[in-house]
Write a structure and sequence with these properties.
7-stranded mixed beta sheet; mainly beta; 127 residues
């Protein structure tokens, strides 16, 4: 049974940094494309960042480009999201997701692309 567990969320002041982690178990991490999504109160879940199988390609939503970095560690079966220069509008529950794919070139940006989801971790940025 595949399981994704996020950690690293918390309360931070605007301009600060956090690093989210997503520990994967029950799946072969290197066979999956991975992504981060977020959902603010009253809003739909939205794409934040994605990394292709093997880590060859990444994609980001425009609002986080230059501030967030997605990466993965196959040896630790862990996905990361480094978030710098945080803004109050980044406040949301952050979810990681995994998609089993044979393709190494494609990061996936749609919520319905993904097969497995974590339970989420809250990120709150105060102004």
């Amino acid at each position: 049974q595949a399981q994704l567990v996020e950690s690293g969320g918390g309360l931070v002041q605007a301009g600060g940094s956090l690093r989210l982690s997503c520990a994967a178990s029950g799946l072969t991490f290197g066979s999956y494309a991975m992504g981060w999504f977020r959902q603010a109160p009253g809003k739909e879940r939205e794409f934040v960042a994605a990394i292709s199988r093997g880590g060859y390609h990444t994609a980001y939503t425009d609002s986080v480009k230059g501030r967030f970095t997605i990466s993965g560690d196959n040896a630790k079966n862990t996905l990361y999201l480094q978030m710098n220069s945080l803004k109050p509008e980044d406040t949301a529950v952050y979810y990681c997701a995994a998609k089993n794919t044979p393709y190494y070139t494609l990061p996936f940006v749609a919520t319905n692309d993904y097969d497995y989801w974590g339970q989420g971790t809250q990120v709150t940025v105060s102004s």
